[in-house]
Specification:
Distance between the termini: 66 Å
Helix content: 25-40%
Largest sheet: 19 strands, antiparallel
Low-confidence stretches: 1-25
Strand content: 35-45%
Shape: globular
Number of helices: 17
């Protein structure tokens, strides 16, 4: 279906509004409903009856006639409910005769639909980007939405939505086309303000003969406050995602993995590689203060922002509580809290992003079927049925001095602790912009440099568990495999050690770590940052000297 003109598509403009923002410094409209909807513990707005006092009926056919002819819906009945103060339409159907696709709406309630405001939007002579807003309606509620004939690349797909509420839609005089200046998409987003869009009971399922079937459920989803290039909040409760392997999808996966991969797929570790079913649940989710106003302002001018432009994007803050992963009907992991306290950008590149996982618990026995008693016994023996841990991931880039670092770390006191950091230099935005202006396409590679790398691994019980589990697949005992492993590592690395004497110490450190446990540190911190171009050319002409260029060390501590 082609809903290209959303000028007055109270219903048809919904999809575009769902992802829209605008920019002129004007805040999104607020309503009593939107202020409550912004609270994560508030009930869905659709759980409450809404009534509009003093409302008058409108000619719903006159409203639908404003839509493009091929986008106009059919319906069964249209009446005015005086008790609600709403024009009520039943049996709505938006269909495409060309491909059989359709969206059906069992019941629609239009509150405060303002035909005069619509006419002012249509007939405005001054349709600039700062033209006044008109409130098109107070509220629109749609109930029992469903799709028909949408298949795509799968055999069957079905989407139903229990209800959608559009709260106080505003459109600029001149509509989404405005005066024709600037980028088309930016004009459309700039022309729309809305207090909120609230969904209830979203359910989507898809199946295919040669890939896993999946289902998504979202009982409560809210987008609160679009305006000024900002989205104030995204709130969701009780999200769910699940997929299930079919015999055909497992066969296709086995063929793609080749003989060795297929061996693991049919062994006791198959649950780790391709579980028959998996489900993800999130108790509550909130994402606040998303800001694209700086970027949108360039779009309204019809220009791409130069690399020196700042304050274009800010992804705000995000929190998710009690995110659970279930495998084959068993809970495999739960994270009490996952947060993104910062997500700032410089130009179009993330400059300060941090994600933290707190108070997580893991049960790796969930990946193993009950029939694999020996595997379950080994996992429980090493405490892998109850592993606690925290984790962080962070990226920081200083566009002024050109330094950047990527950090990832997790702590599982009963299993393993690991942290890694890689840092770069000479990524100054001003110099990158100059190189881009001069026509350099790979300006990061040409300008940047490697500054350092560290990897620290502290083994608790991970190696014991790994060898015991490997023995199930390979035969023998885990203890025997571990005893033999250091010798195999030294033997396989002997040829590499002939290329550079430093490699011998690396091999010894890894072999000792595998055999004895303890801690392993891999560090590459050259005296001065090494340009990426130097690393690239060295890797081609003299790869054996890379350890010297980076001053690579590998250290084992018991």
């Amino acid at each position: 279906m082609n809903y290209t003109n959303i000028l007055l598509a109270g219903v048809a403009s919904l999809a575009l509004v769902s992802c829209g923002q605008k920019d002129d410094g004007v805040d999104a409209p607020k309503s009593e409903t939107s202020q409550k909807a912004a609270k994560v513990d508030a009930d869905s707005p659709l759980d409450s009856t809404f009534k509009l006092k003093g409302a008058e009926p409108v000619d719903i056919d006159q409203f639908f006639a404003l839509l493009p002819e091929d986008a106009r819906p059919t319906y069964e009945t249209a009446t005015f409910d005086k008790a609600l103060g709403a024009d009520v339409v039943t049996g709505l159907r938006f269909s495409d005769a060309d491909d059989g696709e359709a969206i059906t709406v069992a019941r629609a309630e239009f509150f405060g639909l303002d035909m005069d405001a619509i006419e002012r939007v249509k007939s405005a002579e001054d349709a600039g980007q700062d033209a006044p807003f008109e409130t098109i309606f107070t509220k629109v509620r749609l109930y029992d939405l469903a799709t028909e004939g949408f298949e795509g690349d799968v055999d069957n797909v079905n989407l139903t939505i229990g209800g959608v509420e559009f709260d106080q839609l505003q459109i600029r005089q001149g509509g989404t086309e405005g005066n024709g200046e600037g980028d088309e998409g930016a004009r459309a987003l700039n022309a729309i303000n809305i207090a909120g869009i609230y969904y209830k009971d979203i359910a989507m399922a898809a199946s295919s003969s040669d890939s896993p079937s999946f289902a998504v459920t979202v009982p409560d989803l809210r987008f609160v406050g679009f305006g000024g290039g900002k989205l104030n909040a995204v709130i969701a409760n009780d999200l769910g995602y699940s997929f299930n392997q079919t015999d055909e999808s497992r066969l296709a996966l086995a063929q793609a993995m080749g003989p060795q991969g297929a061996m693991f797929l049919n062994g006791p570790l198959s649950g780790f590689i391709a579980p028959e079913s998996q489900e993800i649940k999130v108790e509550s989710f909130e994402w606040r203060d998303i800001d694209f106003s700086g970027l949108l302002s360039w779009g309204l001018r019809g220009e791409e922002p130069p690399m020196t432009a700042e304050n274009l994007i800010n992804l705000g803050t995000m929190k998710a509580f009690n995110a659970e992963t279930w495998v084959n009907g068993k809970r495999a992991a739960v994270a009490a809290e996952t947060i993104m306290p910062v997500a700032e950008f410089t130009w179009l590149v993330p400059s300060d992003v941090r994600i933290e996982t707190k108070d997580a618990e893991y049960d790796f026995t969930a990946y193993v079927p009950d029939t694999e008693e020996e595997t379950l016994e080994i996992l429980k023996k090493h405490g892998l049925d109850n592993v606690e841990g925290d984790g962080i991931a962070a990226w920081v880039w200083n566009s002024k001095n050109g330094n950047a670092s990527l950090e990832y770390a997790f702590e599982m006191p009963k299993l393993v602790d690991m942290s890694t950091n890689i840092s770069f230099a000479d990524l100054k935005l001003e110099e990158l912009a100059r190189a881009a202006e001069e026509g350099e396409t790979n300006f990061v590679r040409e300008q940047g440099a490697f500054k350092g790398f560290t990897l620290n691994v502290k083994d608790e019980k991970a190696l014991d568990a790994i060898f015991d589990i490997a023995a199930l697949q390979m035969g023998g005992s885990g203890e025997d495999l571990r005893v033999s492993a250091p010798g195999l590592i030294r033997l396989s690395g002997a040829q590499a050690a002939q290329m550079n004497p430093r490699i011998s110490s690396y091999i010894d450190a890894v072999a000792n770590f595998v055999g004895k446990g303890g801690a392993l540190e891999i560090s590459a911190v050259p005296a001065e940052p090494v340009p990426f171009t130097t690393l690239q050319s060295t890797g081609v002409t003299a790869p054996q000297t890379i350890p010297d260029v980076l001053d690579l060390t590998v250290t084992h501590k018991e």
